[in-house]
Specification:
The chain is an all-alpha fold. Helices cover about 65% and strands about 0% of the residues. A two-stranded antiparallel sheet has the order 1-2. Strand 1 and strand 2 form a beta hairpin. The radius of gyration is 22 Å and the shape is globular. About 0% of the residues have low confidence.
């Protein structure tokens, strides 16, 4: 294990991250909110910490192997979650504890959107912008950004990309060089962000809210600058803009690239995962709309439809925006939406959850086993986009699913052991492991009132969800550290 090389890379990445605390200073100056010092202190603290780590080992330049790549990614997200909490901890307006500051920082960076902060409407613009910016940076992954703009790292960038990028098809590249792939992904990501901000502004948001919400929409994060989330605006046009960009951001970004390159939508239609993604959203919307309408929850057909559509898209893509308190919807609807977040977005998107492609492969594998009972001698291949899927991929998907369910059960039992009720414990783990944000019960609005042990456990759950479990778990196994 090349620990000194890892130290050098981690130091450089921390130095890079420290500069993300400068834009909130500019925002604070523009809006004259006099909340600059927390970010000045945070900037110098993280910058000095990164420089101290980097300087003694600055000449250690060796090729990074995959094993070191995993460790760099895990350490970076963990250290970054702690260091990103500095401005929040230093802020006198927030006046929050260390665990709350770390929880908020990790929630932002992992694009979870679970919050411990209330009274957002009265907070300084600099703090509000910083929270949104954390989600935007975490959306595509700071590691991918680092690979794109830091070739001076002197490492094999593919190892970081493979370790950080989630999904069973992570080794596919859009361009021959991994640096080109990372840059291309960020160009698409940035284009969506700009388009989303302009659309929000045209729909009626002011410039600050439009930019801030575009960050969390494209990142599928769910943080808002208002306690009422998207319900604050009470504007169906704004809600439709959010729906469009949440749906786009929940799609595999490689499909966006292929559609742009070919100037055709054929790549979307030909993709099995995309088709299931669209069908799932449509079916859930019809179910929720029908139930809300016939149960007379809202006074009109249009209100039932808009609320159903928005909440379905937001929760199913694991964004976490709300226009109404869906936890108070009647019958099975709140639990149905929580279960929808287990599926999440497509592989290669900014969404959370298990990913649509894994659910599709699990379904195909289950159907194959049923068919084998009828035709025991038949050889039935599992195909994705008309191509056979390798057996190792199927085994990896089943392994992921079993570990996912096992961890979910353990985390839920641990939360219940410290006094949390069943509904709250279930939804809190679902909201963090799926990087969703809002839950049910005591965590429907925020996570402020749960205990410190629960918050630390849910921080770990958010990191597991962001790194798709195995990236983090592999570092915790004894075999990983053996020579």
């Amino acid at each position: 294990m090349q620990l000194l090389v890892i130290q050098r890379i981690l130091g450089l990445l921390l130095v890079l991250f420290s500069f993300t605390m400068l834009p909130p200073i500019l925002i604070g100056w523009i809006y004259d909110d006099l909340s600059l010092m927390p970010f000045v202190k945070g900037f110098f603290l993280v910058l000095i910490a990164g420089a101290v780590m980097w300087f003694p080992v600055r000449k250690r330049k060796r090729e990074l192997r995959l094993r070191e790549g995993f460790l760099v990614v895990v350490l970076f997200w963990a250290v970054l979650g702690v260091s990103g909490s500095a401005p929040l901890l230093f802020s006198p307006e927030l006046n929050i504890s260390f665990v709350d500051a770390v929880f908020e920082s990790i929630s932002g960076l992992t694009t979870t959107g679970a919050t411990v902060i209330t009274g957002l409407d009265d907070l300084p613009k600099s703090i509000l912008f910083y929270r949104q910016q954390l989600q935007w940076l975490g959306g595509m992954g700071i590691i991918v950004l680092a690979v794109a703009i830091l070739p001076l790292l002197g490492i094999g960038g593919i190892q970081l990309y493979r370790a950080e990028t989630p999904g069973p098809v992570k080794d596919s590249k859009l361009t021959p060089r991994i640096k080109g792939t990372a840059k291309l992904l960020w160009i698409i990501y940035l284009t969506f962000t700009i388009a989303c901000a302009l659309a929000y502004y045209a729909a009626g948001m002011d410039a600050f809210d439009a930019i801030s919400h575009s960050f969390s929409t494209v990142a599928i994060g769910g943080f808002s600058t208002h306690d009422a989330s998207m319900g604050y605006f009470d504007n169906h046009i704004i809600e439709l803009v959010a729906v469009v960009f949440m749906l786009l951001s929940g799609i595999n970004f490689s499909l966006h690239f292929m559609a742009w390159r070919s100037l055709s939508l054929r790549s979307y239609h030909a993709d099995s995962e995309f088709r299931l993604y669209g069908i799932m959203i449509l079916v859930l919307t019809v179910i929720c709309f029908s139930y809300l309408y016939f149960m007379h929850v809202y006074g009109s057909v249009s209100e039932s439809y808009y609320n159903a559509m928005f909440q379905v898209v937001s929760i199913a893509t694991t964004t976490g925006f709300t226009t109404t308190d869906y936890s108070h919807w009647p019958g099975f609807l709140p639990v149905l939406l929580i279960f929808a977040s287990f599926v999440g977005g497509c592989a290669g998107s900014t969404g959370g959850g298990m990913k649509v492609i894994r659910v599709l492969l699990l379904f195909k594998q289950g159907w194959r086993e049923v068919t084998r009972l009828i035709h025991p001698s038949a050889r039935i291949a599992i195909k994705l986009n008309r191509k056979p899927v390798d057996r190792d991929v199927i085994q990896a998907v089943w392994g992921f699913f079993s570990v996912y369910i096992g961890l979910f059960v353990v985390f839920m039992l641990l939360l219940m052991a410290v006094g949390m009720d069943q509904i709250t414990a279930f939804s809190a783990v679902a909201a963090t492991l799926n990087n969703l944000g809002p839950g049910l019960g005591e965590v429907a609005a925020n996570f402020k009132d749960i205990g410190d042990f629960s918050k630390w456990l849910l921080c770990f759950s958010m990191l597991l969800g962001r790194l798709e479990i195995f990236t983090l778990l592999v570092v915790l196994t004894p075999a990983f550290w053996r020579k």
